[in-house]
Amino acid sequence: RTLDSLRQDDRRFPRVMMAELDNAHHFFRHIKKAWTEGDFIDPAAFRIRYLVEQSRYEDGLSINWVEYFANSIPEAADAPLRELLERKGRKVGGQSKFALLKVSDAKTAAAQYVDIAIVHDPEENDPSHALVRGYEAYNDQVAEELGKVVLAAYSARS
């Protein structure tokens, strides 16, 4: 599906809706080059950012819901996702990656510390946007566990 056809579907997901993603679904986390070394992904890529000037954490870890793109294989979602991120002004460098995680695996990995929620949080210019929420108090520990359950990492510029 193209980005334009996805935009026509935006009405399905009003901004106020924060439905949890299905446990069988998947999400991508954009991984910048600084968080990678070869195939290794630094757990820092899964930390919720602390906003010093606001003395608080972000609302959750920003991710993208793979099944939103209605493709049968996750890597088929990378082109429309890359286009979305670039339209948002995000730099998708040649050595950055999309880390693929399964919702149920992420929840199970975090559960030894805290129950997390993985919710659809569509933005005006990013209807596939979602958040991993609820682990601010265990940020480093949960980030480490999420890094362990990455199913695959795809080049963001393939």
Structure keywords:
about 160 residues, disordered N terminus, alpha+beta, 10 strands, two-stranded antiparallel sheet
What does this entry look like structurally?
By secondary structure, the chain is α+β, with helices and mostly antiparallel strands. Helices cover 22% and strands 24% of the residues. The chain has helices at 3-8, 78-87, 103-110, 139-148, and strands at 26-31, 36-37, 40-41, 50-51, 56-57, 61-65, 97-102, 117-120, 129-133, 152-155. The strands form three sheets. The protein has a six-stranded antiparallel β-sheet. Strands 2-3 form a two-stranded antiparallel sheet. The longest helix is centred in the middle third of the chain and has 10 residues, at 78-87. The relative contact order is 0.26. Residues 1-16 have low confidence and may be disordered.
